[in-house]
Amino acid sequence: MDRATTDQWVLPILDVEDERPLYRQIADAIVARVRAGDLATGARLPPTRELARALGTHRNTVVKAFEELAKGGWTSSTVGRGTFIADEPPGMPAPTARAASGLPWSTLVARATESEPLVRARRLARTPALGDVVNLTRMEPSSDLIPERELHRCVDHVFRTLGADALGYAPRQGLERLRVLVAEDLRRVGLTVDPADVLITTGSQQAIDLIGRALVNAGDTFLTEGQTYSGALNALATTGARVVGVPCDDEGPELAALDALARPRAKGLYVIPSSRNPTGTTMSAARREALVAWSRATSVPLVEDDYGADLNLDDTPSPPPLRALDPDVFYLGTFSKKLAPALRVGFVVCPAAMTPTLSSVKHAMDLGTSALLQHALAEFLARGYLRAHLARTLPEYARRRDALVAGLSDALPADVTWEHPRRGVVLWLNLPQDLDAEEVFEEARRAGVLVSPSTLYTASGPARAGLRLVFCAEPPDRLREGARRLGLAIDAVARRRRAARGSARPSLTVDIV
Amino acid sequence: MDRATTDQWVLPILDVEDERPLYRQIADAIVARVRAGDLATGARLPPTRELARALGTHRNTVVKAFEELAKGGWTSSTVGRGTFIADEPPGMPAPTARAASGLPWSTLVARATESEPLVRARRLARTPALGDVVNLTRMEPSSDLIPERELHRCVDHVFRTLGADALGYAPRQGLERLRVLVAEDLRRVGLTVDPADVLITTGSQQAIDLIGRALVNAGDTFLTEGQTYSGALNALATTGARVVGVPCDDEGPELAALDALARPRAKGLYVIPSSRNPTGTTMSAARREALVAWSRATSVPLVEDDYGADLNLDDTPSPPPLRALDPDVFYLGTFSKKLAPALRVGFVVCPAAMTPTLSSVKHAMDLGTSALLQHALAEFLARGYLRAHLARTLPEYARRRDALVAGLSDALPADVTWEHPRRGVVLWLNLPQDLDAEEVFEEARRAGVLVSPSTLYTASGPARAGLRLVFCAEPPDRLREGARRLGLAIDAVARRRRAARGSARPSLTVDIV
User: Fold this and answer.
1) Which domains does chain B carry?
2) What is the per-residue DSSP string for A360-403?
3) Which residues of chain B does A107 touch, with a Cβ-Cβ cutoff of 8 Å?
4) Is A340 at the interface with chain B, CB within 8 A?
5) Tens digit of pLDDT for each residue in B301-310?
6) pTM for the whole structure
7) ipTM above 0.85?
């Protein structure tokens, strides 16, 4: 049996957010491939040194993974010859029995599971180097900015005062107390909403999925900005929608393009007007007005994701939310970014006519979001903890943004520019024309900094190459260090490019008359 | 403007699981109708007495609801004339503005949201009488059987030991510690599974939805038992599947029928082999073997919902799970029924080849189930609390079943029979041919007992009329009282039927030559 080289290998995808140690992830990935039949018994694994280099990790990690595999009976080794998949891996049915019983899954899966965004997300899932990595991909507060004590106090209060009464099913639309408090909280962003139209979801991610499912028949068009939140692309693609990106300028979606794309009638336009993801920019007030007028004229609903509603870093107010201009806008919010992801509580303010439909689909999806967590969040809001928390964390987010910007100013070549973010937690780096975002991403990973390449955010069509850098999950000095490493990586890729151009053989010119 | 009589009225649906008081639910429902344009300004509301009777609630409740409406400016009253929708209800845009801005939602919603199970569920949502109601519809442990102290202790432990580290996003497949503990726990039901194939979901409800989404292209057939869990019908219908019920005998799905229905190729068969819902019966070992053989022969995957895995009331072991017979079976479990619904933690044991696909769809749906709740449940399992809890609650469930059975034996006429449940928490009542399940359901509601009519559980085609009675949510004396009230209701309906037959005018026979 041929030796599997790292070139032929589909490399295991390592995920820093995975709580398993890296060596376990590697071992598990190999076991999964054996079980799936991708690695046959007797196949030779690549040398540890080679695999470590390809994965951007230490050789010791791979050695440990191989030890795990050997211990589990999955491999056998011969000194000097290498490591091989064992002849009878544990727990594997005999090949004939398996062949007889195995279902033809590849012909059974839904088309939506093989849609471009999902496949791409699997390919580009965050792949860290080991140990000292500056992570600029994690879109969640670093642990020192999560109000654990206050949350603990609120959960405790719920157990002590409500006990088992907080542990049953929640009403399908969400706890009324929480819906009222969310509606009150929204006054701060200039929204007056009826709690009867607030629907609690499992994070705003579920709200995107929910709206997609309530509107999309398979094959329907759903519009997004040309570059947008990857999670929205994944969710919408999973509903069976044909996701089409609208070309954007600095202010937002281009209206001429929108008019052309509304026919054949689209089922919705998903936008992030404030602290846009991935670019970190803000849609102008004029463009917001124009979008609402367009929606009314074309009957294409707007879905407004305002995940960063509270995250104004420079105390400059955002333009009004789309929902303030039109009660038929779906408005999404979440407490994952400003509080704690583990709450898994977000919400959608529905167009009144759609509340019953969304509630019944939500109920069919999961019988409602955890009552315990809803009670705890309501208590948190009622005590005024959120404002206190934001008063503490917003200046820190601003400091982190400034540290990242300072680091980038020092480390990047002059032809790399970025958008200065006034709200939210992401900064967008524009790469020069001749640099490939995924190549920079790979080089940066090897240099010890994780960034997200533009390919993850592209809905359809061409998009400007760039990188998204998240600045909420690392402290200022680490952000500066990350910028430094990124500078080295960009330099390295640019040098390689120049060298490649330099060494290219002069092409023969043949005149064709 | 004409007076709205209760006949013309679509009655508000009252939900005992809703935490809003009933008068609020009534008031909110009326407001919703005004906002949706179903009740125009100037429309007269039905008299409180009439509405109360139709809703099966006290008149005072309706009076209070009307007072709320008046206070909020939604209605105006004239003594002796009645109550009317105010000319300018608060917060309503002027009619022309609304007409101009309103989107044509009825043409925008996805077809799946109007599928039969969802529409039916909305129509039959649990409608209680006020106050003293015996609720035999709530499929969750009564609050005295929820281990609130142990859960509190575990959550507390997680906050104290992990703090902010437990408050981020969880790995998309679920916490590894929890997956390992779930796999260990499954040994008790005779299952040996690899934690690498366990995927944590937001209750088993989400697992049904997830599998549907991973397999179904809109219009694909998905099979279920002829009568099955209403939540599964809702979830599968929402994925766009054409849900087809398989005729069943006492042992399970009829094999001859299955063979015919597998073509055109179905994407799955959803079954609840142990403690079937709604009938409370158990599928025979022979039928399980046959189902697995059928699945292999036809390449139709099996989805096994084992929500009642631990709930053996008489200490008689269940036949082996389908998953023990075939590693290509999706096996679902939940902690909602045996522990606490608010955990919202369930799981699916995936066919190995499908784990990555399901993980990526799950991630697209909600970025993972709450890490905090997963940590807490893992701690609960690791401490052995689950076994202790079951040792305490199972005898109580058995007592409750016995109390219900004793009550039914006393109260029901001889022609009403039931299936004796040996596991799970539901009992199925077979109604005589001439009694309509929904009519009995309505009459029982008026008599102060809530039951679930067979219409909720019918996948497709004709089904035997009956009622599902849940015995876990009420204490023994209330179950006996519920049985008594149900007996009165069935008697009343049967009497009406006889009277109707007796008073029917003899039909004129006209010979047409």
Assistant:
1) 3-92 (1.10.10.10), 123-143+388-502 (3.90.1150.10), 149-385 (3.40.640.10)
2) HHHHHHHSSS-HHHHHHHHHHHHTTHHHHHHHHHHHHHHHHHHH
3) 299
4) yes
5) 999 999 988 8
6) 0.81
7) no
